Amino acid sequence: MAQTTAFPRPQLGDIFVRRNLNGSEEESMVLSIQYSTRPGGSALWQATLMTKNGIEFVGCDREHRNIHDWRPASYIFDDVNANWYSPAEKAKLDEDRAAAAAKAAAAPEHKDEFLVADAAEITNALTKKKAVSRLPTVTLPTPQV
Question: What is the total count of domains within the chain?
Answer without folding.
Answer: 2
